[in-house]
Every structure is written in structure tokens, then in C-alpha cells.
Amino acid sequence: xxxxxxxxxxxxxxxxxxxxxxxxxxxxxxxxxxxxxxxxxxxxxxxxxxxxxxxxxxxxxxxxxxxxxxxxxxxxxxxxxxxxxxxxxxxxxxxxxxxxxxxxxxxxxxxxxxxxxxxxxxxxxxxxxxxxxxxxxxxxxxxxxxxxxxxxxxxxxxxxxxxxxxxxxxxxxxxxxxxxxxxxxxxxxxxxxxxxxxxxxxxxxxxxxxxxxxxxxxxxxxxxxxxxxxxxxxxxxxxxxxxxxxxxxxxxxxxxxxxxxxxxxxxxxxxxxxxxxxxxxxxxxxxxxxx
Length: 291
Ligand SMILES: O=P(O)(O)OC[C@H]1O[C@](O)(COP(=O)(O)O)[C@@H](O)[C@@H]1O
Ligand SMILES: [Mg+2]
Ligand SMILES: [Mg+2]
What we know:
alpha+beta; Fructose-1,6-Bisphosphatase, Chain A, domain 1; D-Maltodextrin-Binding Protein, domain 2; eight-stranded mixed sheet; globular; binds 1,6-di-O-phosphono-beta-D-fructofuranose; FBPase_C_dom; FBPase_class-1
């Protein structure tokens, strides 16, 4: 697992960042009911923004940008990182799974903290985490090789599980994209695993990956014939969630290598994503090797 060692200055600003995120989580969740409509804007990836995406982005930029030691605020909703002085770069998916707003299904917020400016690879990642707006509100934080899960119902962080580890035995699988658009290798992999595990796919990466963290298995948003780099964004979804899974004893892949080793060349670069138990990542890579 490649990521820089953090020093005491980094530890202090990381504490501030995750405390701020925990405090803000209830406000983000409370902002959802009145913002379930599509805005007239599209994000830098060309996707229609929900009102809630834009509002969560505003709240997060204001709160995180004000932290001493945060130099840039970047998000999937902002064309370019926004300058907030000197320090680390916070990179966010303010609302992940926003298409789940309408059907009132789980969604969340993803954060990555990079040492330097974007584009940044996994070797510059200091920490990452996500907030999950489910039946209860949780925040999972990956720092110094360890994943910790907190309850953040009242804006306080109360540890639920220290050193979260993927179960040895996989149970669930979930994958994005449409079957006719999958590559032959990925289709062959799905043909295999559908006989072995339970399908769990809910359309929000945060919620679907948390299923894998809880029950063991694999989450994929693969390379598609129509989109060879898949759908998910390297800086805001791929790298932070890959670090989280690898801290929990799992593995990540873009189809050939750990997502933490993918070269970052653009702020909004997309990446194929496979996350989960090591033996399943090995199997999906074996099916994709000739593609
Ligand atoms: O609707 P699809 O094609 O299954 O895509 C679902 C994927 O897209 C996403 O919703 C993209 O994230 P955003 O909602 O932040 O744009 C992921 O959370 C999820 O894994
Ligand atoms: Mg997302
Ligand atoms: Mg989003």
C-alpha cells in the first residue's frame, strides 16, 4: 500500500478535517429533503447536478477551506481546485450516489486528503474517509494504515469499530454499468461470481462499498466498452475508497494494478474500479488480463 507517512503537523490538520466533517454531516443530511431536484448546472464530468450536490459542496468548501493547514479545496463539482492558502489538498465527492435522493436510498460524502496539489496519486494520499447517510449516520476514516468506523449521529464521533477488517469469507458482489456494455472478460467474471455470492448493488459507491466492508465480497464499476475508464473519478472516489479497502485488509484494482498506483494526470480523470477481498480482485484481474 503506497501512501506518504504523516508527520505531527499533518496529524493535527487531519484531526481538524475529520472533526469538521463529523460536525457538518448532520447539516448535510438535513439539507437533502428540500434539494431533491435537478439543478440547471452540470458538473465538470458533464453530469447533471442535483441541488443537493451544489449545496453540500458549498457547505464543505466553507467549512474545510477555513481550516488552518488546508491549502486547496477540490471537488467533483468544481472545475478546478479552489485556493485556500497553504497546506494540504482536500478532495471531495460532496454527495456520492445523488441519484439515490429521489428513491430515498442511502448515499454519502467521500473525502481524500492529499499532501500536494492535484492531480495527485495514491502515493500523495495522507488519509481518506466517507460519511454514510443510512439508517444511522456513520463516518469511516482510513489513516496510518487503519480503518476506524464512527457513529456521527449528533455531530460527535463515537467509535463503533476500531481496525475494521474485511471478513475472510466473501458474501456479496455488486457492479455498475449495463451488461451489454461490459467487456467480455468482466462478463465472464460476473457469470462465475453470480453462482457463488449474493448480488448487492444500490447505486451509491459509499453504501455499496460499505456492504463489502461489512459482509466481504467485491464492488466493481468496471471499464465499459462505451467508456474504457469506467464512470468513477480517480481523485474523488477511486483513490480514497481504494485506500479504505486496503486499510481493511482488502485489495483494489483498475483492472491491472492497485488504484493507489494509477498515474494521476487530470483532476477529473475517470478510473475503472474493483474493490474487495484480495482473492476476488485476483480473479477479476485474471479475467481482464487480455483486454
Ligand atoms: O447509476 P449507475 O450507472 O449505476 O452509477 C452508480 C455510481 O455512480 C455514482 O452515483 C457516482 O457518484 P455521484 O453520485 O457522486 O456522481 C456512484 O456513487 C455509484 O457507484
Ligand atoms: Mg460519487
Ligand atoms: Mg457526487
